[in-house]
Amino acid sequence: MRILNSIPKNDGFHMPAEYEKHYGCIIIWPERADSWQYGAVMARKAFTEVAKAISGSEKVTVLTSAEGYDTARELLPENIRVIEMSSNDSWARDYAPTFLKDNKGNIRGADWYFNAWGGLDDGLYFPWDKDNKMARKICDLYDIDVYNIQDFVLEGGSIHSDGEGTVLTTEECLLSAGRNPKMTKREIEKKLKNSLGADKIIWLKRGLYNDETNGHIDNICAFTSPGEVVLAWSDDKNDPQNEISKECYNILSNETDAKGRKLKIHKLPQPHPIYMTKQECDGLIHFNGQPTRTEHERLSASYINFYISNDAVIMPGFNDKNDKKAKEILENIFIGRKVIQIYARDILIGGGNIHCITQQIPIFYRNPTC
Ligand code: KQY
């Protein structure tokens, strides 16, 4: 592994789309008692279901602390690798590397600075030092060169790429006070283009209602193919999500992508609002004397938070009336991939969902040396 300080775009590297071919997927085993209720017992089962569904068509590696190793190895089937690596929590999307590729089939990692979604401004835990080191460690594990982009705060869940030069993001997140407050929107856009090999950034204003990541894109909108997106949708005028979804729709319908295409927008209904119960709150320990969740708190549930594997789309379900409808819509969009719905309330309680706990590694034309 080499640590690179050059600019990915100048080196011919760009961020592929998630629907392009993968070599594998990284997941981090849940453990934190202020994120995962009742000792993460239910979360571990849900993570296992996700890992198994993905392992049907790509190599899954689960990273765990020494303490979590035995339960991980016991619950996960043998075709899934389990490797010890320390972390502060379990959000592979946000602090595993963002993988970039060139047109010869080489891949490299991007190592952004991670500050727990807002650092000392409005970050969600402290410290975050182990999470921040994971991208580099993972590149070392796979013997992949890594771009040092530690001068810029970014999480993988705040960007989506169409693989053809367009990147989607939100102002709410990237312009938040806890990320890169000294940079202007223009400077941030340039940094994204250079780091992700992109030509066009499409900015939505806001992410999902009450999303504690400051509105990550991966909970509200995703590319499903070049020129096509799927958007979280609410028709309920009494739900604040209704106005946010309409605002996103207007922005997207007036945009073109890097290739000059108008976007086709698929609306994906939202689950009905989901709230924390007292029993769930009782299963979480406090962080610094403060509860991480409160009873009746609305969770940021969204069907958009799915993972696209080589042969399937792994999407969350919430035992909600809209589960079936959302699954059918994704089945009609992702022809040729099976849509697998996994009950994911126990992941949602941690603050994210299936996309947030996974990170794809694009196919690359060299066997990993690990
Ligand atoms: O990327 C995410 N959606 C993860 C947010 C987790 C916040 C910590 N509770």
Question: Can you describe this structure?
Answer:
- The protein has one domain: L-arginine/glycine Amidinotransferase, Chain A (5-stranded Propeller).
- Helix content is 25%, strand content 23%.
- The protein contains 11 helices and 17 strands.
- The strands form 5 sheets. Strands 1-7-6-5 form a 4-stranded mixed sheet, sandwiched between helices.
- Strand 15 (312-317), helix 10 and strand 16 (338-343) form a beta-alpha-beta unit.
- The longest helix is centred in the N-terminal third of the chain and has 15 residues, at 41-55.
- 6-aminohexanamide binds at residues 35, 91, 93-94, 124, 157, 212-213, 216, 350-352, 356.
Gross geometry: globular
The CATH homologous superfamily is termed L-arginine/glycine Amidinotransferase, Chain A
Bound molecules: 6-aminohexanamide
Mean pLDDT: 97
CATH class term? Alpha Beta
- Biggest beta-sheet profile: 4 strands, mixed
Question: What is the CATH fold-level name?
Answer: L-arginine/glycine Amidinotransferase, Chain A
Number of helices: 11
Strand content: 15-25%
According to DSSP, the number of beta strands is 17
Query: Structural class of the helices, strands and pairings?
Result: alpha/beta
Please provide the ordered H/E string of secondary-structure elements.
EEHEHEHEEHHEEEHHEEEHEHEEHEHE
